[in-house]
Design brief:
With 230 residues, this protein is mostly helical. The chain is built from 7 helices and 3 strands; from the N terminus they run αααβαββααα. Strands 1-3-2 form a 3-stranded antiparallel beta sheet, covered by helices on one side. A hairpin with a 3-residue loop joins strand 2 and strand 3. Helix 1 packs across helix 5, helix 5 runs parallel beside helix 7 and helix 6 packs antiparallel against helix 7.
Amino acid sequence: MTQPLQTTSPAQKESSEANATLHDWTSRVTRLANALVRAITQHWLLIFNTAMGLYAALPALPPVLMKTGHPRAAGLLYTLFAPLCHQLPERSFFLFGPRLAYTLGELKRRIGPEVPLRYIGSAALGYKLAICERDTAMFVAIWLAGLAFGLVRRRLRPLSLKVFALTCVPLAVDGLGQLVGLWESTWWSRVLTGSLFGVACIWLAYPLVEDAMQDVRRVVNQEPTGGATP
């Protein structure tokens, strides 16, 4: 007996085409997402170092803008960094002046007994960076240590938490002693403690980030856990 021919209704055909289109778009989005994740995991260090380099360099732009006659743009950047740093002039580096740094006493002798908390400088003294000496040293150290990490990223193990805590002690002692009035830290003590802390942060964090990025890359590439690193 002859079987009746199976026909596809217009609704079924339309549904099938819609499903195929959805599957095609889903595949494209998945491939694009995998490619983006793969690119980030392969180039994360370049992304981080570029971002930190810009952040370390940007606070030096306001003095340049002041020197070249753009006070409004400089003021905008000083304001931008104000929530991130105290910006005290006696704890900040100055550019385009006779001194790289001034103590509070030196500033009082030069501009008077009342030194504004956010004093930015003058043509005679130079203009301060938008962040303090310790923060400047910290972020420059983070950037330089990130560049150095690129040379040893496959071999360097993370700094232990115990050693990391020890590297924080000089910064804490120097900062707290100054805060409670036991002493006035100097620009070189701020640079040393800030730099030590910045390097320690990279030594602790970047090897862990590198391991995490390799694990993500293995998943994206559907490699076994013990597979070779691409």
